[in-house]
Each structure stands twice: as C-alpha cells, then as structure tokens.
Automatic annotation (TrEMBL):
It comes from Tenacibaculum lutimaris. PANTHER family: DHBP SYNTHASE RIBB-LIKE ALPHA/BETA DOMAIN-CONTAINING PROTEIN (PTHR42828), THREONYLCARBAMOYL-AMP SYNTHASE (PTHR42828:SF3). This is Translation factor SUA5. GO terms for molecular function: double-stranded RNA binding. Residues 14-201 form the YrdC-like domain.
Amino acid sequence: MAQFIKLYNDNPNPKEIEKIVKILQNGGVIIYPTDTVYGLGCDITNAKALAKVAKIKGIKPEKADFSFVCNDLSHLSDYVKQIDTATYKILKRALPGPYTFVLPGSNTLPKAYKKRKTVGIRVPDNNIARAIVAALGNPIVSTSIYDEDEVLEYTTDPELIFEKWQNIVDVVIDGGYGDNHASTVIDLTTDEPEVLREGKGSLDIL
C-alpha cells in the first residue's frame, strides 16, 4: 500500500521531502500536486520506474509523451538544445506557471529519451513539486492522472486519489485540493509558437 504524506505548499517539510526523494531514487512512483492537476511521476533517470509509469498509463515507454518537471530553468541545457532569445523570454515570462513547453531535445537526454526529438518542460508554481525536484537533483517525469468520471476529467481530492491509487503507486502526496484544469501546452519548436492544448495558463505570455 502507498504511503499517504501530507505536505503544505507554503512550507513543505524537509524530512518528508527527503523520504519521498529516497523512494524516487529506489524506483518508486508517486502522485504529487502541481499548480494544475495532480501528476503521476518518477525519477527521469530510472528506466524501470519510467516503464512502470508507462504501464500504468497503458502505453509503451518509447511512445510515452511525458513532461519533465524542473525546479527552475538553470539546467535547461541538460535536456534541451540551445534556444534563441525570444524563446527564452517566453519561458522566463511564463515559468514558474501552469504551462508545458515543447522544446527541441538535446543529445544528453536520459537513455529512455534518446530517440526523442522534442521534450515537454514544466516548472510548476508549486513549492512541493519544486522542492522534490530540487532535492532529487534532476527532473521527475509528469503525466496527469485522469478520472473515469464523465463529468470531472481530473480527480481533485487527495483522499479520493489515495483511495483509487493506493495499490498502484508508492506515495500519494496530499498537497490540498488540486485544480481541474491541466497546463496549457505550447510548442516552441516551430517558427511561431503553436498552442497544442489550452489549459489553465493564459496565452498572454506569447
């Protein structure tokens, strides 16, 4: 059964963050809050954990369209090819925030992503998610958890999330009620920014 860990976004408990990081380093899969919906994730450097997340989502690992959740933009060059000034300015305006940006992948992507030409980058405006990534030392993958409910596309109550996922993942983090709108996805690999999905993020940043 998964651990159910309560954290407060204003001041995430460092000891609990450390516990979560150790689970990630050992190949664990977590459900965690972001500034939009709750996400399912693992350490991007752990191939077995990535395969587990892909299996949970019912897709092949090489077909997985997962985003990288980062703490900030300081290590962007580890995963993304050099970008121009205009693109960087968009990122600076929007992040941290409820956006996923599709950018050209670099040659130094983790092994499981080597064949990917693009990568989705997220820097959520959520202290819990960013504290986990900062303590881990590298991004975690992120994919939204969906609900089979015909009305609500995403589950927002952490206790209901735990009830459903407790035998599937290793940790469910209670960071309060989540949002019911996913991030806005913007492709910055084309000549003009292309909105692939409108979500919580405003398009005024473009």
